[in-house]
Amino acid sequence: MNEKFLKRLKDEFGIVFQNISLLEQAFTHSSYVNEHRGNRLSDNERIEFLGDAVLELTISRYLFEHYPEMSEGKLTRFRATIVCEASFSQFAKELGFDKEIRLGRGEEQMNGRKRSALLCDLFESFVGALYLDQGLDAVLDFLKQFVFPKIKAGAFSHVMDYKTQLQEWLQKNGEVLIQYQILEEVGPAHEKQFVVAVIADGKELATGSGKTKKAAEQAAAETALKNEKV
Amino acid sequence: MNEKFLKRLKDEFGIVFQNISLLEQAFTHSSYVNEHRGNRLSDNERIEFLGDAVLELTISRYLFEHYPEMSEGKLTRFRATIVCEASFSQFAKELGFDKEIRLGRGEEQMNGRKRSALLCDLFESFVGALYLDQGLDAVLDFLKQFVFPKIKAGAFSHVMDYKTQLQEWLQKNGEVLIQYQILEEVGPAHEKQFVVAVIADGKELATGSGKTKKAAEQAAAETALKNEKV
User: What is the C-alpha separation between B25 and B41, in angstroms, rounded?
Assistant: First the structure.
């Protein structure tokens, strides 16, 4: 492996592989193995199979703990925006993994180094190798530095409703008491109109109105997010 | 929880929950929560979300370690036959979980207690609760007693090719050296016929023939499996 890359893993994330051949395998594409049959190399596919499951569990656990009020359905959708090709390939690029992978010539010529599915597999195989080398806690430690802060910062929140987005944004630096308070409830039963205020640690951020209490709360949260220019 | 059931968990698997309310939550269906709104109960859906990921990882790791020669594609197919509704609902029934779940009356009348999807969720939520209560090692310990022996005994092998099935069957009690030996190779290039013998610890089990070496090996393994009445 490239010394500079190893140094970066150590300096940025404190990662030093005990079994460097696992890391090498994680960065070896099947097309490279096929072109070097004499060398008895192994490609990264089996390690990627494992890494995929490691990421599924570690990210599920993070979401389970940090979104105690979120329903199973929302958790599943939220997880799907993180555990996916678009996110993982982006992670691989940010980490410079695309420069380290060993590709066959054909794959190289077809621009495989930039292919999203290949980069996604690469992120998974890196995590699989780290898991095999040092266990689940080492993976968690890496994710705490590299992935969980992105989740906390709202990088994947576009799929969530406004109330959840607002909660996530307000609580990014710690607990904040968020309350929704009905200010007005007017009109007859079949044509009711609610006006709700959203209040964070006692301070009113915005108001919103709607035909149901829920709709009014969402409108208030949406306005609060706009006011904060999130 | 039913005392007899708790005793069974302890006697059969050595499982004693520290936080019994986690186990109760794992056995509480949303339909029961909806009918008992005053009691502030939680249903098992969030725990099931977590349990699903725990099973994905633990079973992936088992397959990764026990099938060192299996490709990523086969591992994925193999895992899919184990991590699925059909298997997990069967596990839940074997464990008597169907008798323990708390259901709403509507769900009960609709025969929910026998519904495959519900039973599958129940197995996942049980594993999720065990993970939250005692960590990944406790889950592994449970699976070593209840799930991994089924895999080893070939309960999910119907999806595998004959060579893998034979290997699994022969090695169920320990390592066995399996060899495929070409006995004959006859005919011109475009019409070749191979005859191959499969040999376990030096003893010939069967022979098979085919147009390629691979096909002949599969045929030999298939015959060996039939001879052994697997």
Answer: 8
- Please confirm, yes or no, whether A94 is among the known catalytic residues: no
Task: Please give the pLDDT value at position A159.
Answer: 64
Q: Binding residue per annotation — B121?
A: yes
- Assess B56–A contact: CB distance below 8 Å, yes or no: yes
Residue pair A156/A78 in contact by the 8 Å Cβ criterion:
yes
A52 catalytic? Reply is yes
Shared domain check, A214 and A105: no
Return the percentage of chain B with pLDDT > 70, whole number.
98
Per the annotation, binding residues of A are: 48, 121, 124
Residues B159-198 pLDDT 10s: 677 888 888 788 877 788 999 999 999 888 778 899 999 9
Residue A229, pLDDT > 80, answer no
Beta strand spans in chain B (E) = 178-186, 193-200, 203-210
Tokens of A29: 């594409």
Q: Could you tell me which residues come within 8 angstroms of residue A140 by beta carbon, excluding any fewer than 6 positions away? A: A58
* Half-sphere CA count of B151, side-chain side, radius 13 A: 24
- Biggest CA-to-CA distance, chain B: 82
**Closest to A5 (Cα-Cα) out of A28, A18, A24:** A24
CATH number at A177 reads 3.30.160.20
Number of domains chain B contains: 2
Is the distance from CB of B119 to CB of B88 less than 8 angstroms?
A: yes
Among residues B156, B188, B213, which one ends one of the domains?
A: B156
Element (H, E) at B221: helix B213-227
Model pLDDT for residues B112-134, shown as the tens digit of each residue: 999 999 999 999 999 999 999 99
